[in-house]
Each structure stands twice: as C-alpha cells, then as structure tokens.
Specification:
- By secondary structure, this protein is of the alpha/beta class.
- The chain is built from 9 helices and 6 strands.
- A hairpin with a 6-residue loop joins strand 2 and strand 3.
Length: 262
C-alpha cells in the first residue's frame, strides 16, 4: 500500500470551520506490484482533527493508522506528501518501521511551487498582457489591423490566450504568445496613433522597458517546458525522469533570472 498525507488539493492541512483545529487526512492506495498496468483506487483511511500539527504528530498518526488496519510493515511501499518541511521530516521518523517505503513528493504541489516562482517574476509581464488584451476589447477593426500587421512579419495570426492567473496553462501560453511577438508590438502601437486615443496608446507604450523585454525572453524560454509537463500529467505520461529534467532546467533558468534582477 502507498500512504498519502493529504488535505485539500495540495496535501496541506486545512482548518475545521467549527473547532478551528487542523485536519490531517491519511489516504491508502493498494498497489499490486506484480502488475505494470493497473487502475488504482485510493481510500481515506482516517481523517484526524488535531490541536497542533508538526512532524512528530504526523509520524505518530501514520504509524497508528497503519497499525489499526493490521497492514504488515514490509508492505508499506510509499509515502506521498507535499513539500512542506514537517511532512517530509515526518518520514525520517517513521521510515525505520517500513523498510520498503520510499518518500515521494506530490507532483501537483511541486508544479504549484514552480508556477508560484513564475508568477513572481511575471508581475510586470502579467500587467502588460492584461493591458494589451484590454486594448483590443470590443474593437473588431483593431483586431483586423493587428492580424494584418503581424502576418506581414511572418508570424501566426493565432489569437492570444487570455492571461488568467487562476488558469496556469492559458496564462503560460499567453506568455509564449507575447514572447514570440514582443519585439513587434511597440511598432504596431506606433501605427495605431491615427486610429486610437493617444493617451491609451501612451499607457501601453510606457510599459515597454528593457526589464519587460528581458522578462519575456526568460519566461518565454521556461514556460514551454512547464506547459509540456502539465500536458504530460493530464495524459498520464509524465515519468520521474522527465520530472527531474524539468526541475533541473527550471532551477538553472530561475538562477539566471535572479542574476538579471538582482
């Protein structure tokens, strides 16, 4: 069996609205190690309400619940949790009891942390994308002019995805769209002065800076890898090897971003 400590979508403890206590969910996933292809079903083994939650408490509850189900210790083969320190530290306390158990961090939480770092570096990028999208709102003729302009540059006239921060994939695809066209957008705005309010054009033009161009360049090189990873997860084809590659690649590129932005 695989033991997961989880609550909510990312394996974090949540607060009980009635008592304001922490909630720890323990989830068991029976696994047939002799079958390569199988559909697994997970079960909530226990839902525990606690006054406090740290690595010692988590370790104690895992051992107690596993023993209550009379599962032989050698049959516990995995512990899945998020990347919070006390969840990971709990494994170091109870792992001695389960000699075949390995620790696996939650992929969803890992992606959430990566996307959080992307959004920090993407604040100016996001502001620009929102302003740019607003410029074309309710203006069919403006959209047509831009389509003709960008086609003359040999680029796709594909519509820009909506930069919605609550939907990571569309947001990152919007970054890629802008990164591919960014060097031409300011030129397009200069051709719009005879059609549009110069004040509105000025507001967008003021956002064109060297830092913004640098942000688009680096984020444009990072997010395609993350998009590929999301699509791999959705198709159930993401491998551990691929996930490690993603970690190494994004870590190196984020290091470059840190050097650029100080």
């Amino acid at each position: 069996a695989v033991v997961s400590t989880q609550s909510g979508h990312y394996g974090r403890e949540t607060s009980d609205n009635v008592t304001e206590r922490s909630v720890l969910n323990l989830i068991f996933t029976p696994v047939n190690v002799n079958t390569v292809e199988q559909s697994t079903v997970s079960y909530i083994a226990d839902q525990i309400y606690l006054d406090s939650l740290d690595h010692k408490v988590v370790a104690r509850e895992v051992i107690k619940v596993v023993d209550s189900y009379n599962i032989p210790h050698h049959k516990i083969i995995g512990y899945v949790c998020d990347n919070v320190a006390y969840m990971s530290k709990a494994f170091t306390l109870f792992s001695a009891f389960y000699e075949n158990c390995v620790h696996v961090s939650c992929t969803a939480h890992l992606f959430h942390l990566l996307f959080g770092r992307v959004s920090v570096y993407g604040n100016d990028v996001h502001s620009f994308m929102v302003k740019w999208s607003g410029y074309f709102k309710n203006s069919v003729q403006r959209k047509k002019r831009f389509s003709m302009f960008i086609e003359s540059k040999g680029l796709s006239t594909q519509k820009c995805p909506k930069p919605c921060t609550t939907r990571w994939t569309p947001w990152m695809k919007a970054v890629v769209w802008h990164a591919e066209r960014h060097q031409h957008l300011e030129e397009f705005l200069s051709t719009e002065k005879e059609y549009s309010d110069t004040a509105v054009i000025g507001e967008i033009s003021d956002l064109f800076t060297a830092d913004l161009e640098s942000d688009f360049e680096y984020l444009g090189s990072i997010v395609p890898t993350l998009i590929e990873a999301i699509e791999s997860v959705e198709s159930n084809s993401l491998t551990a090897h691929h996930l490690i590659q993603i970690n190494l690649l994004t870590s190196k590129r984020f290091s470059r971003l840190s050097l650029v932005h100080g």
